[in-house]
Structure formats: structure tokens, C-alpha cells
């Protein structure tokens, strides 16, 4: 990673946790202490089990968050894009990251070190309170996802992920604005590359999706939703 310059005050990511609190007077001092990096596609910037280096906020790009599963297999637990926070699960409870993270595409990151984050939390009560609510909401999302996935078969999990990608990243010319490999979809769905390939091929034959140069487009979102409606 190499350092670059960004400016919190001109950042357009209104969902960024830091951006939301720029109106607080003391925050103006802390944003001067952040560090910025660029990550190339495929580059890992957080390693599971490595010492925590503060919190990362995505200025621009897409990131996959990973955790090592059984037999050392990677499991994608979350996909994140502009404005989202990375590394919060380990921050404050451990001195090591509980997950890993790497860039899906060229990505710009903002980093606030451990010392800076601790200073913010200790000196700005409103920020600390909102962070507590943020943790509670993320825990709720995680628990709901685990419950939903446990009740789905493999086909339903793959369909659920396709709909998730559409909702989160949108589409251009009916093609998803994120290009995941079959392995990445499998790592997210908790299945194998072969099963994902078969299910995508089946969905294409049924006419509900299209695949162009490995990019996926959803042609009949209503039919896909109907297949997993009982899990929503």
C-alpha cells in the first residue's frame, strides 16, 4: 500500500461513520491524524490473527472480509464498499484482528490508528454512544444472516447472494456492478465452486439470469425473490 491524500470534509460518503460525526468540534483535530492508503485488486490489507492497526474506512472501492473456516477454507463473511468500516469486530476486544480483508478492486482506504480511535472514544461521548449502537446493529445483522443461511439449501443461498449483490452494489446495463469469481461466490455461500457453476448454469437456462464474460446480470428479480421469499 502507498500513501495518498484524501479530505474528510469533501468526502461524499455520507454513510461513513467518521463523516457522520464531522460536525462534532473535537473531531476536526482527529481527522488530521488519519492515514490513507491505496490497495491494488487482490491485495490483502488485514491478516487474521495479526496485531490490530486501528480501524479502516473505505474511501472508494470494494472489499471482501474473510474468516478461516474448517480445514483452512476461507469464508467470506461480508462485502463492503464506499464509506463502510472494516476491522471493527476485533477493535476494543482483542489486540489481534478476528478477520482478514482484501481488495476486490483497486481501493482507497482511510485508517485511524489504535491510539487515535481510543482518544476519540474517550473524549467524544456522542461518537462513543453511536459506536455502541453501530456494534449492536451489526451484531443483529450477523445473527439474522446466520439464521437465514442455516435454513436455506445451496441453490437458495446462491440466489440470496445474487440478490444481495444487486441490492448492495446495483447494476449497469443489467450487469452487477461487482465481478466476483465463482470461488468467491462459493466462499460467500458456504459451498463449492462446482456447485456454484452448476446453479448459475441452471439459472441461466431458466432465463432468470444472464452471464456475459463471467459477469452476471439478473433478468427476473421477481422470480428469484419468489424462490427465497419464505426466508425473508
UniProtKB/TrEMBL annotation:
Keyword vocabulary terms for this entry: DNA-binding, Transcription, Transcription regulation
Domain of life of the native organism: Bacteria
A GO CC term assigned to this protein in UniProt: cytosol
GO molecular function: DNA binding; DNA-binding transcription factor activity
Residues making up the signal peptide according to the UniProt record: none
Database matches in Pfam families: cNMP_binding, HTH_Crp_2
Domain HTH crp-type: 152-222
Segments forming domain Cyclic nucleotide-binding: 32-87
Entry keyword Lipid metabolism: no
UniProt-recorded name of the protein: Transcriptional regulator
Source species: Flavobacterium glycines
Lineage: Bacteria, Pseudomonadati, Bacteroidota, Flavobacteriia, Flavobacteriales
Amino acid at each position: 500500500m502507498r500513501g495518498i491524500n484524501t479530505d474528510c470534509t469533501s468526502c461524499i460518503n455520507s454513510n461513513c461513520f467518521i463523516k457522520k460525526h464531522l460536525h462534532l468540534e473535537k473531531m476536526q483535530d482527529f481527522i488530521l491524524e488519519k492515514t490513507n492508503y491505496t490497495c491494488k485488486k487482490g491485495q490483502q490489507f488485514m491478516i487474521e490473527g495479526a496485531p490490530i492497526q486501528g480501524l479502516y474506512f473505505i474511501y472508494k472501492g470494494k472489499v471482501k472480509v474473510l474468516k478461516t473456516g474448517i480445514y483452512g477454507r476461507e469464508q467470506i463473511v461480508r462485502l463492503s464498499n464506499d464509506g463502510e468500516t472494516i476491522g471493527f469486530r476485533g477493535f476494543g476486544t482483542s489486540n489481534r484482528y478476528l478477520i482478514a480483508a482484501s481488495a476486490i478492486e483497486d481501493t482507497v482506504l482511510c485508517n485511524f490508528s489504535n491510539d487515535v480511535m481510543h482518544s476519540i472514544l474517550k473524549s467524544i461521548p456522542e461518537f462513543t454512544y453511536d459506536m455502541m449502537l453501530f456494534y449492536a446493529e451489526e451484531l443483529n445483522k450477523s445473527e439474522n444472516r446466520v439464521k437465514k443461511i442455516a435454513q436455506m439449501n445451496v441453490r437458495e443461498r446462491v440466489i440470496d447472494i445474487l440478490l444481495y449483490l444487486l441490492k448492495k452494489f446495483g447494476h449497469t446495463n443489467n450487469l452487477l456492478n461487482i465481478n466476483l469469481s465463482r470461488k468467491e461466490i462459493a466462499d460467500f455461500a458456504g459451498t463449492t465452486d462446482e456447485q456454484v457453476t452448476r446453479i448459475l448454469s441452471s439459472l441461466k437456462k431458466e432465463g432468470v439470469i444472464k452471464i456475459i464474460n463471467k459477469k452476471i446480470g439478473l433478468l427476473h428479480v421477481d422470480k428469484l425473490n419468489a424462490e427465497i421469499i419464505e426466508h425473508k
